[in-house]
Design brief:
This protein has 187 residues and is α+β, with helices and mostly antiparallel strands. The protein has a single domain, classed as NADH Oxidase (3-Layer(aba) Sandwich). It is 39% helix and 14% strand. It has seven helices and four strands. The protein has helices at 3-9, 23-33, 53-70, 79-86, 111-128, 140-143, 146-152; strands at residues 45-51, 98-104, 132-135, 159-167. The protein has a four-stranded antiparallel beta sheet. The longest helix has 18 residues, at 53-70.
Length: 187
């Protein structure tokens, strides 16, 4: 696949089949992810891979409850998000079969930024393999709780940066028009 095609056509997928991405496929995505640049070559990324509909449904239920508990509606004008998250039928992971959490080891002040670069590589590589992805920011606060990291075997000094669902799309999302780049300054 042409890189520009991937950049211009990859979109967040919110509708998945029940097919599970195999271990070799997920490993190929992780290998692409770690090709990202990192400040001072720190390579701070570490990945948590969680698979299976039952496990991800449990994670969804618990992450939604936590988010609703800490959610500050004064900072977000979209009340519909609260309603969506309060709906017991809503699956935060859109029934995807795989969740990849990009964690940052405490390595330098740009570790989270570096992890986001790795995440973008992962999502583009997934698109090139016919997989859909979607970053799930609502799950990040729950995944970063000490008790959740303990439960999942993640060291407490790692930071959950970006949870990304991965799976085979039931429907490929249409590209969404993007605004022209806004330039604040060009001197």
């Amino acid at each position: 696949m042409d890189l520009n095609d991937a950049i211009y056509k990859r979109r967040a997928c919110r509708d998945y089949t029940t097919a599970v991405a195999s271990r070799p496929v997920v490993m190929s995505l992780l290998r692409a992810a770690v090709q990202a640049p990192s400040g001072m070559d720190a390579q701070p990324w570490v990945f948590g891979i969680f698979q299976g509909g039952k496990q991800l449904q449990d994670f969804s239920d618990r992450a939604k409850l936590h988010f609703l508990k800490v959610f500050d509606p004064g900072r977000d004008p979209h009340a519909m998000r609260r309603e969506m998250l309060a709906d017991p039928k809503f699956n935060l992971f859109y029934n995807a079969s795989t969740l990849v959490v990009v964690y940052a080891r405490p390595r330098g002040q740009f570790a989270s930024v570096d992890c986001c670069l790795a995440a973008q590589n992962l999502m583009l590589a997934a698109w090139g393999k016919g997989l859909g992805t979607c970053p799930i920011g609502f799950a990040q606060p729950w995944l970063d709780l000490t008790e959740v990291k303990d439960e999942l075997g993640i060291p407490n000094d790692y930071t959950a940066v970006l949870p990304i669902i991965v799976g085979y799309p039931a429907k490929v999302p249409d590209p969404v028009p993007r605004k022209e780049p806004e330039i604040a300054s060009w001197r």
